[in-house]
Amino acid sequence: MKLLEDRIRRDGKIRSGGVLKVDSFLNHQIDVKLYGEIGKEFYRLFGDCGVTKILTIEASGIGIACVTAQFFDVPVIFAKKNKTKNIAGDVYTSKVESFTHGKVYDIIVSKEFLLPEDRVLIIDDFLANGSALQGLIKLVTDAGATVVGAGICVEKAFQPGGDLIRSMGVRVESLARIKSMSEDSIEFC
Q1: pLDDT at 28 over 70
Q2: Residue 96: enclosing H or E segment and its boundaries?
Q3: For residues 75 and 67, what is the distance between their CA atoms, to the nearest angstrom?
Q4: pTM of this prediction?
Q5: Which residue, 20, 24, 22, 123, is CA-closest to 76?
Q6: What phi, psi does 79 have (nearest 5°)?
Q7: CA 125 – CA 62 distance, rounded (Å)
Q8: Pairing mode, if any, of strands 146-156 and 76-79?
Q9: How far apart are CA 29 and CA 19, in angstroms?
Q10: Is 66:134 a contact under the CB 8 Å cutoff?
């Protein structure tokens, strides 16, 4: 998606350690018009897949998933990183290692909202090593539901996550795939 690539070139900041900061428009301060274009593109890519639910992980994926869900006219479920009093009863759970935070989280989704008949589109802001996607895929398969694919805003194609998830037979559509980056340059696939 050229619009997203151009925005990353213009406003993204590359930091040491392979960190791309897009917090001025994607995952802290939100450019709602850009989200609308992202949602439209995910609908163009997955609109014929019979999606019944969109699944993401808190927190950065929630906004993107919500705007995308408006095009599909389906609910959004977000995997929580901590069990709360509001989620009582049976849950699906999986472990996820965060590249950005350097932590391992137990993510959970209530069994009430993820059903065997669901056809689930996973949406997230970044794909690097693939841990978040693997965890979300596990939640869907544990529910007996179907993963129709994963819509990713930014994929770091130089890291192993995209290849790993695709090797699992999951369709991954990334709107901006980064081939390489350094503190003063970025190259897209």
Answers
A1: yes
A2: strand 91-98
A3: 11
A4: 0.93
A5: 123
A6: -70, 130
A7: 9
A8: unpaired
A9: 17
A10: no
Q: Among all chains, which residue has been given the structure tokens 């050229």?
A: 2
Structure tokens at 157: 């194609």
The pLDDT of 125-144, averaged and rounded, is 96
Strands 119-127 and 185-188: unpaired
Find the helix packing angle between 32-46 and 60-72, rounded to 10°: 60
List the structure tokens of 20.
């791309």
- HSE on the CB side for 45, CA within 13 Å? 22
Q: What residues form the annotated binding site for 5-phospho-alpha-D-ribose 1-diphosphate? A: 128-132
Residues flagged as binding site for xanthine: 20, 27, 156
Q: What are 20's strand-pairing partners?
A: 14
Annotated binding site: 20, 27, 128-132, 156
pLDDT tens-digit map of 85-130: 666 568 999 998 876 677 888 899 999 999 999 999 999 999 999 9
Q: What is the pLDDT of residue 19?
A: 87
State the pairing for strand pair 76-79/53-57: parallel
- The stretch 146-167 carries a mean pLDDT of 97
**What is the token pair recorded at 141?**
């398969």
DSSP 8-state code for residue 65? H
pLDDT of residue 59: 83
